[in-house]
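User: tokens in, sequence out, please.
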């Protein structure tokens, strides 16, 4: 796979290339005043690398959502999701290696900053097995890594500075390559800007910004005047991924466009003052009396968006290995029909049951089990984006207790009763309930310890006492040393089991 992309040409018309592999290791800082062509440069870079590396775009103005029209990007509307959903989506993005644009244009400034910080932090905190290479492009970076607090709340500033510092300083080992773009270097936190080893400097006029740009490019004060004279779309580039010496770059053409208003002069309408006044006031009262237009359709819920991310990941995997699917391409239309929801749920249950049946599985941490579950689902093509950590823990407890082996009626009864059971005692409660449904004696302490994930019999005894105090079970000690455990609410379940 090639790692060189062309971003533009020099003054002699020769192509200027960027080494993507080097860029992933050394990061990039883009600077230029409004109208200098900064967004055009980022768009060119994103379009040229779209087929080489995963991309995440933090887009405060909604300018890069058009990438989804020409490439495999998915647009995440930051205003449509809760804090937990944003964090979960970031985890899915790293897990499935899908390129996304986080559109923040519908949020207030401080909400934009908090949403981006949460998303970046979740990308950074992804499990080690999901540390795939990804370009993280942050436009208007001075908002997310401000040099001074300004009007931001202090907790918001701390949150966003931490996220941006992690991205630029510690993200490389986690596969995160930061590309930050700013209008003014003086407004960007120095510890964020200093971590970039590649620079593309566009037109700027303020002396303090010109001097900082010149210092980064290794230019003296006289040479710094060149930065003021740069034309739109022209940048000075330097860095191991671009050039060892400052080079002038004219950024090339792009396929997609932003949502900016048309620029340049346009002729005004040719009409007299009376005609223009008539245009403004004609039927004004009738128009004002019209009912308000219907609200826009609600955005996609997080579950649908997560399913779209999973589906896009499957499409990309199929394109990357077309030979593996040759047989299915020649199958009949009935064979190519999408799997029914029941089949998907059955496949999901099978993955969890196989995981729970492995020796020592219940002794592993929930985080390790969840990562293993997600990896198996991805390998087997089983959609799992709708299953979060909380839901997985419940499903794993069901599987470890053997609930899937019961008849459907008994299984539904136990699942309904278990809704009120605290998560910390769910697994042993289910083990007891399943034994009742089977008409068997209560599981011994070793079996309860295995389901609970402990090797301490005394801990199980304390656990039973705790469950009895909560009113979930009744323990009756017999004179002969035996013990009877009654699961509250399931007293008649043994009879139902025998009848079934």
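Assistant: Sequence out:
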């Amino acid at each position: 796979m090639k790692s060189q992309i062309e971003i533009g040409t020099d003054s002699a018309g020769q192509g200027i290339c960027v080494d993507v592999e080097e860029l992933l290791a050394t990061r990039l800082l883009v600077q230029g005043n409004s109208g200098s062509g900064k967004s055009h440069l980022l768009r060119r870079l994103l379009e040229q690398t779209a087929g080489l590396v995963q991309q995440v775009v933090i887009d405060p103005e909604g300018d890069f959502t058009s990438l989804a029209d020409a490439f495999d990007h998915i647009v995440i509307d930051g205003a449509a999701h809760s804090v937990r959903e944003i964090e979960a989506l970031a985890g899915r993005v790293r897990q499935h290696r899908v390129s996304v644009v986080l559109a923040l244009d519908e949020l207030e400034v401080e909400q934009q900053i908090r949403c981006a910080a949460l998303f970046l932090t979740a990308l950074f905190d992804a499990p080690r097995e999901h540390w795939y290479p990804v370009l993280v492009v942050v436009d208007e970076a001075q908002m997310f890594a401000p040099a001074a607090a300004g009007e931001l709340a202090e907790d918001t500033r701390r949150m966003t500075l931490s996220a941006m510092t992690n991205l630029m300083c510690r993200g490389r080992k986690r596969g995160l390559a930061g590309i930050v773009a700013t209008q003014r270097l003086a407004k960007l936190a120095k510890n964020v800007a200093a971590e970039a080893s590649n620079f593309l400097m566009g037109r700027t006029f303020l002396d303090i910004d010109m001097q900082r740009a010149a210092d980064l490019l290794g230019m003296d004060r006289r040479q710094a005047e060149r930065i003021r004279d740069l034309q739109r779309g022209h940048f000075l580039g330097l860095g191991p991924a671009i050039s060892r010496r400052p080079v002038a770059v004219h950024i090339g053409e792009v396929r997609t466009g932003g949502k900016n208003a048309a620029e340049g002069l346009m002729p005004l309408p040719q009409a007299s003052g009376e005609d223009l006044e008539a245009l403004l006031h004609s039927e004004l009262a009738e128009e004002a009396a019209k009912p308000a237009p219907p609200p826009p359709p609600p955005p996609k819920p997080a579950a649908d968006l997560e399913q779209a991310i999973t589906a896009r990941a499957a499409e990309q995997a199929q394109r990357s290995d077309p030979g593996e699917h040759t047989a299915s391409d020649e199958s009949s239309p009935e064979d190519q029909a999408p799997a029914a929801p029941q089949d998907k749920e059955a496949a999901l249950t099978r993955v969890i049951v196989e995981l729970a049946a492995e020796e020592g599985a219940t002794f592993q941490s929930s985080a390790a089990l969840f990562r293993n579950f997600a990896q198996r689902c991805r390998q087997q093509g089983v959609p799992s984006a709708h299953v979060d950590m909380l839901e997985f823990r419940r499903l794993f407890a069901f599987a470890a207790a053997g609930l899937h082996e019961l008849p459907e009626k008994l299984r539904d009864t136990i699942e309904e009763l278990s809704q009120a059971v605290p998560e910390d005692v769910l697994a042993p409660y289910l083990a007891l309930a399943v034994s009742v449904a089977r008409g068997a004696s209560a599981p011994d302490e070793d079996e309860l310890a295995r389901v609970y994930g402990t090797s301490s019999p005394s801990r199980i005894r304390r656990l039973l006492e705790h469950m009895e105090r909560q009113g979930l079970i009744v323990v009756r000690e017999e004179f002969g040393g035996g013990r009877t455990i009654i699961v509250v609410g399931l007293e008649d379940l043994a009879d139902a089991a025998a009848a079934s």
